[in-house]
Amino acid sequence: MNDKESTQKNLSEAQEQGRYIRRIRSFVKREGRLTKGQASALERSWPTMGLKHEDGLLDLGKVFGREADTIVEIGFGMGHSLVEMAAAAPEKNFIGIEVHRPGVGACLMEAEEQGVTNLRVFEHDAVEVLQDCIADEALAGVQVFFPDPWHKKRHHKRRLIQPEFVEQLRRKLRIGGVLHLATDWENYAEHMLEVMQNASKWQNLSATNDYIPRPEERPLTKFEKRGARLGHGVWDLKFSRVE
Ligand SMILES: C[S@@+](CC[C@H](N)C(=O)[O-])C[C@H]1O[C@@H](n2cnc3c(N)ncnc32)[C@H](O)[C@@H]1O
């Protein structure tokens, strides 16, 4: 059995045992319609930029054709900040993970427009992609910007940032690699800080031991500009893997 066949066998066995089916997910799959532009960008660019969960563990050197720092963005939405960051840092590799197909299409459209070549995308659950496709210590950075806040208390368990998930992220980062989180929902910011402060083997990069000022490399979105005018806050957190 080759590597690909053995990954597929492990995945189907896990699914049969209900390992994935029972897990609480951080998203609800919405079957939004693709615009024509998104559909044709998917058709054109998926062969060069798309990555599939079922292909198993990635060889990053082969995927990007070079050895370079690799940054993963989880839940990139329509991909605006991801494409902008990839365009601004051509010396780095970027991998985006998003479950919403129109978002993946929009991201590829924008990547085409900007001529970005250092970007690959998964249309799949990030928890499973990290588990099955990314080797331990492979990443220089992970970013999660404005994850779904799941406002209601009874839904808080669906929030992506949880102790088990950040431990999974820590193992995927190399020593010194950085996790960057941002949210505009104060209660989620407090939850993120609490989860990270209770997690071991991380160092908070905040001078005040809580949040950091918005880092320049995180693009300012229209939504965030509008929020700032209305006096809404945004909280950024950065932690590095120390062990
Ligand atoms: C509130 S949106 C924010 C999108 C984008 N980061 C932004 O700042 O505009 C959160 C996104 O995370 C995606 N998402 C949630 N859980 C995910 C998961 N487990 N794997 C991949 N994407 C996920 C959702 O589909 C959604 O597009």
Automatic annotation (TrEMBL):
InterPro entries on file = SAM-dependent_MTases_sf (IPR029063), tRNA_(Gua-N-7)_MeTrfase_Trmb (IPR003358), tRNA_methyltr_TrmB_bact (IPR055361)
Biological or metabolic pathway of the protein: tRNA modification; N(7)-methylguanine-tRNA biosynthesis
Question: What SUPFAM superfamilies does the record tag this protein with?
Answer: S-adenosyl-L-methionine-dependent methyltransferases
PROSITE patterns recorded for this chain? SAM_MT_TRMB
Q: Name one GO cellular component term.
A: tRNA methyltransferase complex
The highest taxon in the source lineage is Bacteria
Binding of substrate, residues? K152, D184, T221, K222, F223, E224
Q: Which keywords accompany this UniProt record?
A: Methyltransferase, S-adenosyl-L-methionine, Transferase, tRNA processing
Residues annotated for S-adenosyl-L-methionine binding in this entry: E73, E98, D125, D148
* Enzyme Commission code(s) on record: 2.1.1.33
**Which reaction is this enzyme known to catalyze?**
guanosine(46) in tRNA + S-adenosyl-L-methionine = N(7)-methylguanosine(46) in tRNA + S-adenosyl-L-homocysteine
Q: Which GO terms describe its molecular function?
A: tRNA (guanine(46)-N7)-methyltransferase activity
Listed Gene3D superfamilies? Vaccinia Virus protein VP39
- UniProt record similarity statement: Belongs to the class I-like SAM-binding methyltransferase superfamily. TrmB family.
Stated role: Catalyzes the formation of N(7)-methylguanine at position 46 (m7G46) in tRNA.
Protein name, please?
Answer: tRNA (guanine-N(7)-)-methyltransferase
Which species is the source of this protein?
Answer: Pseudidiomarina terrestris
